[in-house]
Amino acid sequence: MDKEYLLSLALKSGEITNEEMERAAISGMELELMEKEIQIPVISSRQRGQIVQFYITVPARLSRTGKRYQIVGRSEKEVREAFIREVYDNLTASIQSRQLEKMTVADGIEMYLNYVKPHDGGTKGKLKNSTISRYYRIYITNIKDTEFGNVRLVDLRLYHCEDFIQSLYDTGIVAQSIRGIKSFISQALNHLEAHDLAVKNYMKTVKVNPALCSPKNKRETGIWEDEEVKKIEAASKEFWEHGRYRYSAVYLVLLYTGCRIGEILAATWDDVDFVNRRLIIDKTYSEYYNYDTGKKCRESDTTKNTYSTRTVALPDRAIKWLKELKCRNVSCGISSNFVVVTKKGSVPTQSALGVSFRRFCKEAGVPYRSSHTCRRTDTTTLLDAGVPLAEVSQRLGHSKVSTTLDSYYKSKNQNNDAYMAAINHAFEDAYGTTELDEAPEMQDESETTTQGQNPAPSKGKGNIIDFSDAVAVRRRKEKKQNLGNFVSTRQHP
């Protein structure tokens, strides 16, 4: 605990008074001035009518403005203490000013990270621990010891921020990640600007150009096709008959609820209502790296955002696999209120589930995909079945329906024929039916032209266009347009 906190506790408990704290503060300031060999000048007095004024002169070298001035009071003690306070504050401000002039962007962002992280042995900071961990990773990877990070805060301008974002385009980072980096730096600069440590937050005006970002997304973004889902279901039943791959049921629960992996890991059987067919999502299990301790951490936390706190309707298949998962836990002698548990009754790590499911997929003959594939497959299946987009988005815990449609809906391969049939049907309804003509055979150019001669222009399907006709049509259109403009001008002078 710091000294200020201990003093506040002592003051609150009545162990010390405000007057005692004031005297202690003045004594401490005076000691620091003496260490810097600063002496208190002689206090003088003067008569102003019937009032005696005491005054002391602050020399120019100890003044914040660089000019000497007087401190006036009604007693020597008042003037003396005022001198000590002002000179101490002036020196402190001068030291801070020199420090601020040297502070770099990296220093400022590290200060912001220290501000948001937990203090005094606490476990909660001003942001989620997983978010703080992600911000630290951005700081170490993209800001610390870089050209942008070494820019002094007092010198930071718009072009520095633009050049920094431009440099990220060449690193193969996708647009979404660059926006995340930009957002973090902008938050830090907002904090520094509010505390007069930065001139202005120029980063918030910089635009990320997706066309210049890497088009490759390292994250897997596909879905499971219908036949693959059937294989996963059949394999899960078959393997469990031999007591293998208990966790395979977890992925099927995810597939039929659309939950995030952290949400199902944090879920308890108290959150599952089989009678009313619903699952309450009000917490998540997060895993992150603590850069202060250098260790991986896991904790139960609030959901990703307010929209993520929700109630999910359970279809028949979700209920079936939740009950199957509970039966498997009981058959293994596991007694725990958590829905997903290890044989020892603790919550498994996401990586442990991933390793188990990777082996399962290999034996089941389906391609391995991450747990988030379940959310995309759930989304695609429901939207293809005609479930309203708003309801699917709410089920997933999204704040915007655009996120559901842009990032989670993926076209299934088996729907290609139906998709093409729907397009043809739309055009036939609008314009009538049509018959496909055979494509004309292309003749060899050497057979239609001779050396030094151009082919004779002619009209007809599959032949060369007569550009002289096209030019004449364009000229007639221009003449008609000019005539229309002339008439309009005469009618509306």
Question: What labels would you give this structure?
Answer:
about 10% strand, elongated, mainly alpha, three-stranded antiparallel sheet, about 500 residues, about 50% helix, single chain, disordered C terminus, 8 strands
What's the quick description here?
The protein is mainly alpha-helical and 493 residues long. The chain has helices spanning 3-13, 18-35, 76-102, 105-116, 129-143, 158-169, 175-194, 226-240, 248-257, 261-266, 316-331, 350-364, 372-384, 389-396, 401-408, 416-431, 445-448, 467-491; strands spanning 44-48, 51-58, 69-73, 272-273, 278-281, 284-290, 295-301, 310-313. The protein is elongated, with a radius of gyration of 37 Å.
Q: What is the topological layout?
A:
Elements: H1 3-13, H2 18-35, E1 44-48, E2 51-58, E3 69-73, H3 76-102, H4 105-116, H5 129-143, H6 158-169, H7 175-194, H8 226-240, H9 248-257, H10 261-266, E4 272-273, E5 278-281, E6 284-290, E7 295-301, E8 310-313, H11 316-331, H12 350-364, H13 372-384, H14 389-396, H15 401-408, H16 416-431, H17 445-448, H18 467-491
Antiparallel strand pairs: 1-2, 2-3, 4-5, 5-8, 6-7
Helix pairs in contact: 2-3, 4-5, 4-7, 8-12, 9-11, 9-13, 13-14, 14-15
Detailed description of the structure:
The chain has 493 residues and is mainly alpha-helical. Helices cover 51% and strands 9% of the residues. It is built from 18 helices and 8 strands. The strands form 3 sheets. The chain has a 3-stranded antiparallel sheet, covered by helices on one side. Strands 4-5-8 form a 3-stranded antiparallel sheet. A hairpin with a 4-residue loop joins β6 (284-290) and β7.
